[in-house]
């Protein structure tokens, strides 16, 4: 019997294992030289001056919102079609979440919908690069620049993607990455915040490390002694340890290989499913070069559950990404109601994420394609 095919998985090789073993045998397990090296490499990949690693992608969002000064008097505009963390990290800081509808073709935040929601209370507009396809950053940046808000790009799906020839990470005021195992590269758990703004970078770095101030020029009581450190505003411990940064460095060296492999998987799906009736395949706009994290198909005619169950029963461990965030009971209890973002709700009602990862073999992928076709016969 053929084994199950997961919807996503990490790609670990002997060089990754060797890098981690070397770190384990060194003098550093927590914050050491590999952290700085990995942060520099991430900044280069993103095309920015600063990267701050974090313990996971949700921590990166929390750090980024905190660095942006998000607080109880602020509103944060978030796309409805995303994982709950994009909204929850801002809500944890006391902000009011305002949900924007998404584009029909990409599933990304619709700049027109966001524009209708931005007001004087808006501190941040958060864009999510759904499935790896970059958001319309130029339209969003025009909007936020005019309103005085900051643009945050939740790029959990899209490291190494480009938009109009520019790398994701350099498009927004501040950008977050996730390095969860199913993402485009991994540090097991991990994330990063990247920016070209020195003030945002310093605020992010400080929040990531308990809010500690070690620069004597900034301390209130520097005369206390060379050991002295102060907390001027509260932060949390969101540091990513040296041993996991060693894995990240090794993975990042293969980021082009991963992107090429995922593009090959994407193209094979597009070719194999192009003529299937009742199916909408993912869009790719001509000014983007995505690093594909998901392959989201949309099943028309109310047959999503039927197709999902058929694929699962036949060993294809598909997923659905995502329930509209305001459908979660936490947000329902705050008064958010279904029907607010009809495009996102329709997208969710039809969406299935097919297996997508760099090491997905041709024979397994052809099996997935065949089963999708059979499910819709």
UniProtKB/TrEMBL annotation:
Source domain of life is: Bacteria
Task: Work out whether the entry's keyword set contains Transferase.
Answer: yes
Pfam family name, one? DegT_DnrJ_EryC1
Which Gene Ontology BP terms does the record give?
A: polysaccharide biosynthetic process
Matching entries from Gene3D superfamilies are given as: Aspartate Aminotransferase, domain 1, Type I PLP-dependent aspartate aminotransferase-like (Major domain)
UniProt-annotated catalytic positions: 183 (proton acceptor)
Q: Which GO terms describe its molecular function?
A: pyridoxal phosphate binding; transaminase activity
Keywords from the UniProt entry: Aminotransferase, Pyridoxal phosphate, Transferase
For this entry, the protein name equals Aminotransferase class I/II-fold pyridoxal phosphate-dependent enzyme
InterPro entries reported for this sequence: DegT/StrS_aminotransferase (IPR000653), PyrdxlP-dep_Trfase (IPR015424), PyrdxlP-dep_Trfase_major (IPR015421), PyrdxlP-dep_Trfase_small (IPR015422)
Residues annotated as carrying N6-(pyridoxal phosphate)lysine in the record are: 183
Family membership noted in the UniProt record? Belongs to the DegT/DnrJ/EryC1 family.
Requisite cofactors: pyridoxal 5'-phosphate
């Amino acid at each position: 019997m053929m084994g199950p095919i997961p919807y996503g998985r990490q790609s670990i090789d002997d060089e990754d294992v060797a890098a981690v073993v070397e770190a384990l045998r060194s003098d550093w397990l927590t914050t050491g030289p590999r952290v700085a090296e990995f942060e520099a490499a991430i900044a280069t990949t993103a095309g920015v001056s600063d990267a701050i690693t974090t313990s996971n992608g949700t921590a990166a969002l929390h750090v980024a919102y905190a660095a942006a000064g998000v607080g109880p008097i602020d509103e944060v505009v978030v796309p409805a079609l995303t994982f709950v963390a994009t909204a929850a990290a801002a809500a944890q800081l006391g902000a009011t979440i305002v949900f924007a509808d998404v584009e029909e073709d990409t599933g990304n935040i619709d700049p027109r919908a966001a524009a209708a929601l931005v007001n004087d209370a808006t501190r941040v507009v958060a864009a999510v690069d759904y499935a790896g396809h970059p958001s319309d950053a130029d339209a969003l940046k025009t909007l936020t620049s005019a309103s005085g808000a900051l643009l945050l790009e939740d790029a959990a799906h899209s490291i190494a993607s480009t938009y109009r020839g520019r790398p994701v990470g350099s498009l927004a005021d501040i950008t977050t990455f996730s390095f969860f195992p199913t993402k485009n590269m991994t540090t097991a758990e991990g994330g990063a915040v990247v920016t070209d703004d020195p003030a945002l970078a310093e605020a992010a770095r400080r929040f990531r490390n308990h809010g500690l101030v070690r620069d004597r020029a900034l301390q209130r009581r520097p005369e206390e002694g060379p050991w002295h450190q102060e907390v001027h505003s509260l932060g949390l411990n969101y540091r990513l340890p040296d041993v996991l940064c060693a894995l990240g460095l090794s993975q990042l060296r293969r980021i082009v290989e991963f992107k090429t492999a995922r593009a090959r998987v994407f193209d094979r799906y597009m070719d194999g499913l192009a003529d299937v009736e009742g199916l909408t395949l993912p869009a790719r706009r001509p000014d983007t070069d995505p690093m594909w994290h998901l392959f989201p198909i949309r099943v028309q005619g109310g047959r999503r559950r039927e197709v999902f169950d058929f694929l699962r029963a036949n060993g294809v461990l598909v997923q659905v990404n995502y329930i509209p965030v305001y459908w979660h009971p936490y947000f329902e209890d705050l008064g958010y109601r279904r029907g607010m973002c009809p495009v996102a709700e329709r997208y969710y009602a039809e969406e299935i994420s097919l297996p997508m990862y760099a090491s997905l073999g041709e024979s397994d992928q052809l099996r997935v394609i065949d089963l999708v076709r059979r499910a819709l016969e």
